[in-house]
Amino acid sequence: MTSATMPFPPVDQNTEPIGVVHVGLGPIGRQILAFLGDRKRYRSVGAVDIDPDLVGKDLADVAEAAVSPGQVRVVDTVSGLGSATPGAVAVHCAGSSLEKVAPTFMALLEAGYHTVSTCEELSNPWATQPQLAADLDACARRNGVVLLGTGVNPGYSMDYLPVVLAASQRAVRGVQVHRVQDAGLRRLPLQRKVGAGLTTDEFADRVAQGTIRHVGLPESARIIDRALDLGCTGYEETIDPVIADSAVPLGAGTIEPGRVLGIDQLVVASRDGEPVIRLHLQMAVGLADPRDVVTIDGDPGLESVIRGLHGDSATAAVVVNSLGRVQVARPGLRTVDEIPASPINL
Amino acid sequence: MTSATMPFPPVDQNTEPIGVVHVGLGPIGRQILAFLGDRKRYRSVGAVDIDPDLVGKDLADVAEAAVSPGQVRVVDTVSGLGSATPGAVAVHCAGSSLEKVAPTFMALLEAGYHTVSTCEELSNPWATQPQLAADLDACARRNGVVLLGTGVNPGYSMDYLPVVLAASQRAVRGVQVHRVQDAGLRRLPLQRKVGAGLTTDEFADRVAQGTIRHVGLPESARIIDRALDLGCTGYEETIDPVIADSAVPLGAGTIEPGRVLGIDQLVVASRDGEPVIRLHLQMAVGLADPRDVVTIDGDPGLESVIRGLHGDSATAAVVVNSLGRVQVARPGLRTVDEIPASPINL
């Protein structure tokens, strides 16, 4: 009925490319390299891996389409990278145990790199490893850079999104997240990680040994609890198998009835015995209708249903889309809810 | 199958309350006062309104449950507020025209207040009023405070949320948002604003006069364009009536068939003629299934459906939940995508 046309001004951009160093060239590290190949704002300027088969190689021969030949040679330690140019970011994809990788973070921060890592325990170490968190925070601040642990989960679907959605509420009493992922669509290591094909006894043994457990749900619960000041006083975590009730095809083979398809993991955080935060992750072969449902129990309350948050791809994307965001965040050890939403697609 | 319990550490909070001054005591301003009454972190310390019936009154007699009697008396100009204590925030709900309210913003910023406003044109004035935006930005930076325009739309459903959702994508080619609101559930001024009950001729006249138009869609499109670097070169905005095809009850009366139920407003931003961003707002009496749908055309793409983003309540909530967030943002004129997601529920 009425119409108007008006030009958009060009986006004001610092045209100097931002240097990225890659620490860890496993599946996720390589996926991030490939994703960065599409982006005009970033340039890969260094790479580190401990694998002797990779050290000394040209990064262009290791990873697809992300860097020109002759630009970057893989080294075996962070000390081989040299100091950061202003704004440079290290992308770290090499381990879930914060205690083991903390010295690497310290070295990267001291060299002046903003550091973004898929280390799940880094997503929110303030409660679990307070001294180490404080040391990393101090080191990042001293060097004027940001240290961030992120990915799709932890880092996005069970912490950042619920906090973002809660901003529309007058008050929040509780938060529920239900994430359903079809592990059949994911990479093989993930299928192994969730126990696909095991007997229930084997599954129980691995849970008891701690080798079957998705890391990050308590970290996410604590991000929600702190952001929304929900006053949680404790949590319980349970890990159960999803069991095949008929034969389920997987790759070239089949998972027989009675065998394990994957994990059903639940964290319930409570305040004085009352459940407040419920994070429910189902990651198994053949699960129908993969989705992320966030339910805010609040005033007026809200339900969000997202389809399309694929695990591996989303982890790499969230990391890549954080590289511009850490540039404009306050220096220090940060959780995902503490960095701005923009700029992301540079 | 396995369980663990571990206490959460108490949330580390600055226990000093943050002072809030209220500029504009209309319906949204009062709703914000009521919402703030539930929050422990904030204390109302000042109020301004030009209405002679309010000036000189005790704020406790004007607004519900937000402040104790004898604490705050309503004054008629910002200069009557005095200087801000550290971290103090002004909540401004008094007008959509940035040009008209800019002197008020300047005065608040100079007095040291972070300023959060529902002024729709403030949500992203960089393209439409670049000189004024630059002046406000410089003033905010000089005083070390943040100036932010927000609300549910613009400020959340059509800009912040799509940017947040895009962070899960390897690449984004386009963004579509469809917001459906039942104006029958909203306050009376909103029903008038969308033209409920008018003839189609009356509606057309008011659109031509510019009195029927939801302000903010181009501002939201520009936030998305800039955050995701989509390179839009122009946009078109159309405003059509939603027309009753049968009698629709409203309050004590009825809207007859053929009369207007509300607006159907569309902004399509394009890059060299190709549509890239599509923001579609339907706000009319009796619309079924109120919802916010965000579709990201990207790699791998995503669809998000939210139910529960009620207009008035969400605007007041988004403003209240921004007060903690501006404290930790970089000083200056900011758009919603530039402030962190936390802390919000203090």
UniProtKB/TrEMBL annotation, chains A, B:
Highest taxon in the source lineage: Bacteria
2,4-diaminopentanoate dehydrogenase C-terminal domain sequence ranges: 157-341
Pfam families in the record: DAP_DH_C
CDD domains: nat-AmDH_N_like
Protein name: Dihydrodipicolinate reductase
Organism this protein belongs to: Phytoactinopolyspora halotolerans
